[in-house]
Structures are given as structure tokens and as C-alpha cells.
Amino acid sequence: MYNICVAGTGYVGLVTGACLADFGNVVRCVDIDESKISSLENSEVPFYEPGLQEIVKRNVERGRLSFSTDVNTGIEESTVIFVAVGTPMSDEGQADLSYVEMVAKSVGEHLNGYKIVVMKSTVPAGTCDLVQGIIEITSTSGHDFDVVSNPEFLREGSAIEDFMKPDRIVLGASTERALKVMTEIYRPLILENTPVVDTDVKTSEMIKYASNAFLATKISFINEIASICERIHADVSVVSRAMGLDERIGPKFLRAGAGYGGSCFPKDTRALVKTAEAAGYDLRIVKAAITVNDEQRRNMVAKIDEAMGGVKGKTIAILGFAFKPDTDDLREAPAIDMAKDLQRMGAALTGYDPVAMEEAKTFVKDVTFCEDVFEAVKGADAAVFVTEWNEFRDLDLDKIKSLMKSPVLIDCRNIYEPPRMKELGFEYFSVGRRPREG
Ligand code: UGA
């Protein structure tokens, strides 16, 4: 059991803190955002993440998890400090490290014994060295400390499961002492045979960026294949399934669609390009993946425009705003850019999202948000699926058709099957699959 402080209560910080408390550690989650901390003190999680609320509540009740805005006390009372603060993208596309630097400075100033600083935030290679340097400069106590890189691979929407059953644990540590503590902290997962990659700090930092950039590239790759499929009348979903059956390729992250969004892939791919640039290397493949992704949402708008014979003066129902299902996160969500483009082109929009609607209202103006799918499609000239929420997968399509002004469906996530949609009498358009026959 360790006394642990987690700095930053976003997705990564809160999930890490709650799960480490569940392992039996005493965890203090600290954040400078007072409103976040006061909701958390009432066990209210300030964002939507399945299962997180329960695990927070359980550990608060058992006295193992607490929240505070007092970062310094949190550091003083802990041996291990996990840094999970935001690293937003700066205007130049680099990761902004000012929050990381703030925490490092506080650790230096409050180093009242041996401590390990664990970098969980996604930070460019070299950041752990920077943190090490800041602590050395600010600390006068003479106590030892170590900085460890321990990147997190959890996904929004399945964060708890991803933390509790990771594919691997990556530990970039420069001393045996720090490695031993980290291995003890992760003991419950190691006992479940989770592989541990024990490496140096910079390699560990790179693993995180390389993994995200590779997954982003996989998505852009299949989206390009989808574009060819459309032109030659092939079916990308079959191409992707067959490719995925090759164990060297694997089936995951090969779903063609509106492209990737969220707080990680767009930011991390750009940051990696910047890191490469600074190291004197032109990272061509990742750059191309970014360009293809940026274009993919515009391709979706062009698809809608073509399907409708022009969108000007027409009403379009946007179904799904979150950047992916099971989250209320709208950062870099394709739906936001698409909605804005369609509005610029003169379309009127209605909209519905099972969870992200309140958030969506702050991102796009002049959309008539509705209580459910049926209200959104009522009288619409077309409906567009942008996020593949489960509740969109088995809709009463006859009812939808009867409510719409014209039965035009553009499915940006390939939720439905083209033959069935044709049979039901829809003009149905999807991504990288055979267009309607006849
Ligand atoms: C991603 C990584 O998957 C996590 O491993 C990582 O820890 C996290 O970033 C991070 O760096 O913090 P996340 O952004 O939550 O997680 O979401 P993903 O499930 O990876 O989806 C990202 C985007 O790719 C979504 O917009 C999704 O719709 C899109 N996507 C995903 C596709 O378009 N096609 C696919 O086949 C898969």
C-alpha cells in the first residue's frame, strides 16, 4: 500500500486515482480547478465515463480516495506522485507543458522525503528530463527522487476496463528503486499476467506517441482505401474484415468512417510531427495520416451535398455529435466541423446525441436539438449518422422513413447494411461501400 497523489482530475487522472485506490492504496487526487474538486467531493464525476462514478463512490466511502485543491499538501503526504495534468496543443502544434512544469516545481518545493514522480500525461520525449531538471533546481531539501515515465493507453468510454485489463504496462525508469515501487503498485495487474515493458525514460515516452500515431495512421489508411472502394465499386467493410483476419494486421482500428477525433489522436499526431521536426526529421507518414483525417470530414460533407443534390435551404438531422460512442467529449469531433460546414452551405440543422447534447450546444449554434432520433428526423430532407451510438444500431427505420420529408440517409459510420436500406426504400449512402444499384 502506498500513499499516492494524482495531480490532475481529467480522464486519465481520475481513472488512475480511482483504480489505484481500488487496489488498496491511499490516493489523494488534486486539481487547481475548484469546481471540479467540489463536485468530486460529492462523488460526482464531472464527465461521462461508464463505471467511473461507482468506483469513485466506493473508494471515497472506504476512505481510500479523497480530493483536494491543495496540491502541496497532496505532494507532501505522498511517496508517489502521478502527473496526469493536461498537455493541450499550443498554437504551434506542440504539447503545452506549463501544467506539468507547475507540478514539477511544487514537487521540488515540497520534497520532504524520497518521492517518485510518475508521468502519466502524454508528453513528448525529453519531458521527464525536463521535470527532473526542474525538481533539482527548486528542491533544497537534499532528498532523493526519481522521475518515471508510465504512459496510459486507456480509451474514453472504456477507461476502467482499459486500466484494469491493459495490454501492457510500460515503465520507463532510471533506477532500480523506482522500478521496484512501480512494480509493486501494479502488482494486482502483473499477477493477472499483464506484460511489463521495462525500459528507459525516453523510449517509454516514445512508445505512447508511436502507438497513438500508428492507430491514427491505421484509421486514415482504411479511410483512403474506402475512398478507392467507392470509386471502383468495392466494399471496404469486407476489405477491412479480410485484412483484419491476417494476424499480422489485426482487425482493430480498421473501421472506415468520418475519421478520428478526440483529445488524443489529433493532438498527439501533431506533437509527434513537431518532435520529429525538432530532431531534424520529416515524419511523412504521420503527416499524411493527419491530412487524410482532416479531409475525411470534408469528404463526408461533400457526400451529403451530393446525396441531397445540394444542401442549401434543406433541413438535415445530425445524429451523434460525440467524437465516438460512450463519451460526452466533443473535442475535435467530426460532427462539429461537419455541422458548421453544412450551416455555411445554407442547410438548417436539427440534432440529437444520447449523451453529448448539452456539450454540443456550446460548440455549434443554431441547431435545433431534439429529445430523440424521431423528433430530430421529423420533416428532415436527410439524416446523417456521425457517431455509431448503440441506440442508433437498431432503430425503427420504417418510423424514421415515415417521419422524414425525403428518405435520404447518409451513414458516416457504416452502421447499416446497404441491401437492407434499399429494401426499406431509403436512398442510402455510406463510406467505402457499393453505392445504390439502379
Ligand atoms: C486513444 C487511444 O485509443 C488510447 O489507447 C489512448 O490512451 C488515448 O487515445 C490517449 O492517448 O489518451 P481515445 O481517443 O479515447 O483513445 O479513443 P479511440 O477509441 O482510440 O478513438 C479515437 C478516434 O478514432 C474516434 O474518433 C473513433 O471514432 C476513431 N476510430 C477508431 C475510427 O474512426 N475507426 C476505428 O476503426 C477506430
Short key terms for the protein model shown above:
438 residues, alpha/beta, Rossmann fold, 6-stranded parallel β-sheet, 18 helices, 45% helix, binds uridine-5'-diphosphate-glucuronic acid
Strand content: 5-15%
Low-confidence stretches: none
Task: Estimate nothing, just give the exact number of structural domains.
Answer: 2
CATH fold naming of the largest domain: Rossmann fold
How are the strands of the biggest sheet laid out side by side?
3-2-1-4-5-6
Residue share in helix: 40-55%
Structural class: alpha/beta
Output the CATH class name of the largest domain.
Answer: Alpha Beta
Radius of gyration: 24 Å
Name the ligand types.
uridine-5'-diphosphate-glucuronic acid
Superfamily (CATH H level) name of the largest domain: NAD(P)-binding Rossmann-like Domain
**What gap, in angstroms, lies between the N and C termini?**
67 Å
